[in-house]
Amino acid sequence: MGVKVGQQPVWRNVLYADHVTTDLPQCPDCNTLDKIFAKSCEQYPNNPCLGKRSITEVEVFGERKFEHFTLSDFEWLTYQEVKKKVDNFGAGLAALGMQKGKNISIYADTSDYWQMTSQACFARGFPVATVYASLGAEALEYGLAQTEVTHVVTDAALVPTIAQVVDKLDNLKYIIFTSDPRPAGQGGHKSDDEIAALITNKTEGVKAMSWDKVAEMGSDTVSQKYEGPNKEDNAVIMYTSGSTGNPKGVVLTHANIVAALGGMLRAVPNLNTSDVFIGYLPLAHILALSAENAILSVGACIGYGTPKTLTDKSPGINQKTTKGDAPTLAPTVMAAVPAIMDRIREGVMDAVAHQGSVTKKIFDRGYGVKQGNSFGSTFYDWLIFDGLRTKLLGGRLRMMLSGGGPLSEETQNFMNIAFCCPVGQGYGLTETCGAATIVWPNDGSYGRVGPPLSCCEVKLVPWEEAGYSPDDKPHPRGEILLGGAHIAKEYYMMPEKTAEDFRTEENGKRWFHTGDIGEVCADGVLKIIDRKKDLVKAAGGEYVSYGKIEPLLKDCPLVDNVVVYQDPSKAYCIALVTVAPKKDPPAPEEVVAAFAAIGKQKKLAKFEIPTKVHVCNEPWTPENGMTTAAMKVKRNDIVKKYKSEIQQIYT
Questions:
Q1: How many domains is the chain built from?
Q2: Residue 411, domain member (yes or no)
Q3: In whole angstroms, what is the distance from residue 52 CA to residue 539 CA?
Q4: What is the per-residue pLDDT across 339-361, written as a single tens digit (0 to 9) for each?
Q5: φ/ψ of residue 312, rounded to 5
Q6: What is the pTM assigned to this prediction?
Q7: Would you say residue 171 lies in a domain?
C-alpha cells in the first residue's frame, strides 16, 4: 500500500518508502527503450514476439459498403525475426534522410507495423510524434506542422486523409505506408502503386512508398554503424487526443518511459515469457504504448487484433466463418479502457436477458454466490462462467489492466466475477507515461486507484475554492501532484503551458499538477474524487462535479453515454445522453426517473441529479469527433453541437 513520507502530504509505495525507482528491475543497465528491446531479442531470440491474423476473404454488403472479414489464425514472428525487420526499416529510414534527433510521425492504427516502426525509431534516436488514427485532417495537419516532420509512417487506409493536407506541409518529404491488407480483387483492394498515386497526384514534392520497400532498401545498409540515443533524449512526442481545443504534444524522454515501465513491472505480478497480450488499443495512447513495451521487456508476446474484429460479435467479423481476435488468441493479460469493459458487461447482461427467465435466474444466482468470492472457484464457474470466459476472451485471462478513466463499481465487480481475475485499475496520464498508481491484486475494494507505483510520489495540495485540504479529516484531500523520473519533459513548443503544469519547488523537486482531486485513504491508497475542470458553480452556490456524477449515471441501463451540463445561471443540471446501438430510444422522462433512482441509491444531492434530459439521435464515437480514441467524451464539442437543444431544455 502507500506510506506517508515525513511531515509533508507526500506518499510513496510502502515497499519503496525510502526512494523512488528509475530503472527496469530485470535490466538496471537498460536506460533507453532500444536497449530494452535489444536485450529481449538477445535473451529470447526464438520466442514468439508479434502476431497477427491475415484477411483471407472480404464480404461487402449494404449501401455504405460495410466489410465483414474472414481471418486466418494468428501468424507469428519471433523476436529474432522482428529484430531483423526493425533493423532493416531503421536503416531504410536513414537512407531516406532521417537523422538522429529529427522528429518522425506515426499516423496509423495499432499493428505489428506500428510497433516495429517505433522500435526502429527508438534505436536510431528518431523521436516519434504520435497522432491518433481517428483524428481528422485538421488535427493531423496541426500535429504534423508543429513537429515539422519530414517523414510520416501510416496505413493504406489513412493515406486519403494525408492526401487532404499533404500540399499544406512544407517540410514533408516522404509518406511511408503499410500495404492494403485485403486480398487483391476484394473489398476495394488497392495496390501499392495506386496508394502512392493518391499522394504523388496531389503534389510532386512528396514521395510515397510502402513500408516493406523501405525495409528492403535498408537491408543493403543495415550493417553501417550509427549512434543510438541517450537516456535524456526525446523518445516520443505523444499528442493527447484533446477533449478540448488542439491536442498538446507531451514530450517523453527515454528515461521517462523506462522509469514508468520499471514502476509498472514491479506492480504487475509475475509477468513472464508465457504471457500472451492482445494489442488492439491505440498505440498513440500512453496506456497501450507502455503496456506493450512492458510485455516486450519480459520476452512475452503480443497478438494484434482490431476493435472491429475483437470478439465474435464485433461488426467486422464474418460470424459464419470466423471467431473474434480475443477468443482466437486467448490472451493471459489484457488492457482495456472503461468504455470497452462497460460494453462487455452490457453485452453479456443483454444476452442473458434474452435467453429466457430460467437462464437469467441461474445466472443471477451464480452472480450472487460469487459476489463475495470473485476469484474463487465455485459450482457456477463450471456451470456458467468458465464457458463465458472462453467464448468472450479465450478462457486464459489472469490479469486485466484498466486505465484511461474511472471504472464503475458495477463493471469492476462484473469483470472480477465473470472472468475470475483481478482488474488492476490504475491512474496515470500521458504526462506521467501512464504511470502513477495501480490497485494491488489482493485489494477487493472498489472506487480506488491504488497506492503509488515504485517510480512515483503522490502529493496533495489545497484547493481552497472547493474546500479541499490535506488537513481534512478523516482523510487528506486536495489536488494531486505527481513526482518522479517518469514525469514528462515538457509540452512541445508550449512554454507557458509547460510552466503552468510542471513546477519545480525550491528544493529542486519537480511536480506535475494534474488538476485531479484526490483523497488518500488510511492505508495510503488513492481515490479520485473530483477534477478542477469538471466543477461548475450552480446558481444556488453548490458545485456540480461532472467527474463525480457521470460515471454513476452511465450505469443506467437505458443509456450508453452521458454528458451532464450545468448552466451557471440555473439552479439545476441537465444531461445529454446516447442510447446503445440496436436499442429503442427511451422517452426523456424515463431517463430522468432512472437517474433519480440512481441518485437516491448513490446518495447524490438533489442538485446533482439531472432534472431534464435530451436523448441524442446518434452515438458518440471517435469517428464523428464526439469522443477521444480512449472513448472519453469531448465535452466542449458535444455541448457546442447540441447548443440549441440545451437552450431549449433550459427554457
A1: 2
A2: no
A3: 55
A4: 888 888 887 888 788 888 898 89
A5: -60, -25
A6: 0.89
A7: yes
